[in-house]
Amino acid sequence: MFLYMSDPLVRVRYAACLFLLDPSLSLSWPPRIEIEIRPPRNLLQSPSLRPRSKTQTNTRLFSERERRKKLMAVSFPKCPSSPLPPLQTRNRAWSSPLCAPIQVGDSSKWALFETTKRCHLSVSATNGGSAVAPVEPSKKIQDSGTKTTPTDHSTKVENGVPQTVFSSNEFQDLKTGPNDSGRESTVSITVVGASGDLAKKKIFPALFALYYEGFLPKHFTIFGYARSKMTDAELREMVSRTLNCRIDQRENCDAKMEEFLKRCFYHSGQYDSEAHFVELDKKLKQHEGSRISNRLYYLSIPPNIFLDVVKCTSLAASSENGWTRVIVEKPFGRDAESSAALTRGLKQYLHEDQIFRIDHYLGKELVENLSVLRFSNLVFEPLWSRQYIRNVQIIFSEDFGTEGRGGYFDSYGIIRDIMQNHLLQIVALFAMETPTSLEAEDIRNEKVKVLRSMKTLEIDDVIIGQYKSHTRGGVVYPGYTDDKTVPNDSLTPTFAAAALFINNARWDGVPFLMKAGKALHTKRAEIRVQFRHVPGNLYKKCFGTDLDRATNELVIRVQPDEAIYLKINNKIPGLGMRLDRSNLNLHYAARYSKEIPCAYERLLLDAIEGERRLFIRSDELDAAWALFTPLLKELEEKRIAPELYPYGSRGPVGAHYLAAKYNVRWGDLGAEH
Ligand SMILES: NC(=O)C1=CN([C@@H]2O[C@H](COP(=O)(O)OP(=O)(O)OC[C@H]3O[C@@H](n4cnc5c(N)ncnc54)[C@H](OP(=O)(O)O)[C@@H]3O)[C@@H](O)[C@H]2O)C=CC1
Ligand SMILES: O=C1O[C@H](COP(=O)(O)O)[C@@H](O)[C@H](O)[C@H]1O
User: Fold this and answer.
1) How far apart are CA 204 and CA 240, in angstroms?
2) How do 324-328 and 220-226 pair as beta strands?
3) In the 8-state DSSP scheme, what is residue 181?
4) How large is the angle between the packed helices 618-637 and 336-349, nearest 10 degrees?
5) Is 391 helix (H, G, I), strand (E, B) or coil?
6) What pLDDT, on a 0 to 100 scale, did the predictor assign at position 377?
7) Which of 66, 64, 61, 136 is nearest to 93 (CA)?
8) Whose CA is nearest to atom 13 of ligand 2?
9) Region entry Disordered: which residue ranges (predicted)?
10) Among positive and negative, which fits the CA dihedral 555, 556, 560, 562?
11) Residue 228 beta carbon below 6 angstroms from any ligand 1 atom
12) Which residues lie across from 155 on neighbouring strands?
């Protein structure tokens, strides 16, 4: 990227410091220019210099001295030791300066950093004047139909036109007030479907947690929108019943809740009424005042009304001078065709970069950690292929049925509800090649390649089940079809197991086994990586005939009780030679005192910050549906009956046969997990 600077600033001879990814740097020292930056690719390739993911917090990658040494090693000239402004760090930010050469030649053109992240550039100018720094943005791979066009430092393309960036300064507003242009900005978050289950259970609590921890900008307003009649006070009352404070931070909880609730408002309206959204727009404007307005809509509503709402928000209630983004909840269609139709519909009113398709599993701590585990530990990456991995299992189970959601569930079933999205996203992250960088588009490009390399799922590689009533200890647990909102003859699967294959050089022949079920014996989500046998194992006599018991297994327990453990063979202490299987265990509760944030917190914050890495791009979605659609159609057309399993059991026996077909045992069902 080139940075152009106009006179009179061009007297800067040399050297500037770039402060990466720290929106809240407090720089008293003029002049300050805001641009969006990231280091050039070759820098990003150097693992030690890669900017940290914004969500990694609290640990420094290396000390200031080390950083400077490393930078020198890649032939950056020394930065001036003074005047370096003081650093004030925000939790999620990378706080140290990265120094780089900046030359101001006659042409006033500087070869600098490519970028998409927010940051500050401070220039040691001799005249101290203020700077205007138009920047040519880096080219991003975009979904079809979305183009990046040149913008200046305070604009960014969204809604198809350059928009004001919700820049570091707005975050700095948290502490320092107006930005350089003299205008503050505000974020209005509207939860559409505010009276519903997801809004109450997840969205409002997540927004409160963000507020509590200081992650929402200084100026924000939350609106609930739904048809139900409610006053602001009633909404607040409803929301207050769902809020709780983090176990590790109970201080001032009540006061914080009160402050938060004062920022919550409600507007009742129909989902397809532009007039009602005009009313909402008016209310939003009252709160936004003369600030730059940024608007986030969370569609927490049934999918059949997504498009009505998107149309109304877009035509009647989108921001006029800031960004407008829409978080769309799953399901994204029922199959390839309906999903494509939904995407087309959304794109009539929104650009791809305004659409944030949420898959909350991508916001789970251990799912996010997958890439860290793999790409920042030498011990794992070399083993990550067909050469050493025998099979991978992605397991989701819930110990309750569809209670209360039978109506929705019956027209989707477990394959659409869990497998095609949550579990498949995990596979894509798990199996992708090293992305060029941690940028959203680089990661999503790699994920989509995995999905496109996968073999379309065939019916012989799938088994389905449905839970039936079961009585235990005098308690009767209802069957799926006992739910009044479910037809008595429903064939909708509440359990499925499937074997998937990735036809590429890394994963050829390795079964990726998925299993998902409701009303099972336990609640759990985990990834199990079973390694191959040790060739010519010297100790094989110690394992008897069952060599499978001696293979290493890496388990990433996504929930509950997050952990990563590796099963190894170990000598039992003593004079004899007896081996057992033991765990090298990273148990989060023991290792980290901080409570793990809920996935919705991370994703909401990312949407506010415009970080798309954990959201699904439309081509990913198309590739995911392409894998599952033929199977779903066949199941429905042939009316294949699911195998019944008792509520609270380990699921249908068929799942074992499916695994056995590929010489695999489910890791979660062994004697020791
Ligand atoms: N609940 C969950 O755990 C999860 C939900 N999701 C997805 O999130 C979205 C919201 O889920 P959830 O909160 O459970 O949904 P709800 O069924 O609770 O619906 C949300 C709100 O939408 C309105 N609504 C409901 N049905 C209709 C209808 N037929 N026509 C018009 N409006 C209707 C109601 O508000 P009012 O009548 O006041 O207008 C309701 O309060 C869905 O897309 C769901 O698939 C995704 C993951 C988990
Ligand atoms: O998306 C969904 O996820 C939940 C499970 O989410 P979790 O975070 O509690 O594991 C599932 O119950 C629901 O059926 C599905 O729609």
Assistant:
1) 9
2) unpaired
3) T
4) 140
5) strand
6) 95
7) 61
8) 417
9) 127-159
10) positive
11) yes
12) 164
- The answer to whether residues 254 and 261 touch, using CB atoms and an 8 Å cutoff, is no
Q: How far is CA 215 from CA 173, 441, 474, in A?
A: 12, 24, 48
DSSP code at position 649:
B
Q: Is the CB of residue 198 below 6 angstroms from any atom belonging to ligand 1?
A: yes
Give residue 547's pLDDT.
Answer: 72
103 CB within 6 A, ligand 1: no
Which pLDDT score, from 0 to 100, does residue 523 have? 97
CA 103 and chain centroid, separation = 38
**CATH number, domain 158-358, options 3.40.50.620, 3.40.50.720, 3.90.1010.10, 2.30.30.30:** 3.40.50.720
For atom 1 of ligand 1, the residue with the nearest CA is: 198
Distance CA 364, CA 194 (A): 23
Q: What is the mean pLDDT of each run of 10 residues along the chain (673 residues)?
A: 31 29 32 34 36 32 38 33 33 30 31 29 31 29 28 36 32 38 86 96 95 93 97 96 70 87 97 97 95 96 95 96 95 95 96 95 96 95 96 98 87 97 98 96 97 97 97 95 94 98 98 98 97 88 75 96 95 91 95 91 96 95 98 97 97 96 90 64
Helix axes 253-262, 204-212, angle to 10 degrees: 120
Tell me 586's DSSP state. Answer: E
290 CA from centroid of ligand 2 (Å): 40
Q: Which residue carries 């030359």 as its tokens? A: 103
Could you give the CA distance from residue 405 to residue 585 in angstroms, rounded to a whole number? 36
- Cβ atoms within 10 Å of 246's Cβ, excluding its own: 14
Q: How far is the CA of 360 from the centre of ligand 2 (A)?
A: 8
Give the model's pLDDT for residue 673.
66
CB 648 within 8 A of CB 470: yes
- First-to-last C-alpha distance (Å) of the chain: 51
Query: How distant, in Å, are the alpha carbons of 215, 381, 564 from that of 367?
Result: 22, 16, 11
φ/ψ of residue 504, rounded to 5: -135, 175
The whole-angstrom separation of Cα 558 and Cα 395 is: 10
Domain boundaries, the chain: 2-138, 158-358, 362-527+616-669
Ligand 2 cavity residues, CB under 6 Å: 360, 398, 417, 525
User: What is the Cα–Cα distance from 563 to 586, expressed in whole angstroms?
Assistant: 6
Interacting residues of 424 by C-beta distance below 8 A, sequence separation 6+? 451, 514, 624, 627, 628
Q: Where are the alpha helices (DSSP H) in 264-305?
A: 274-288
ipTM passes above 0.95:
yes
| Ligand 2 atom 3, closest CA | 418
CB atoms within 10 A of CB 73: 11
Asked if residues 44 and 50 have their Cβ atoms less than 8 Å apart, the reply is yes
CATH number of 362-527+616-669: 3.30.360.10
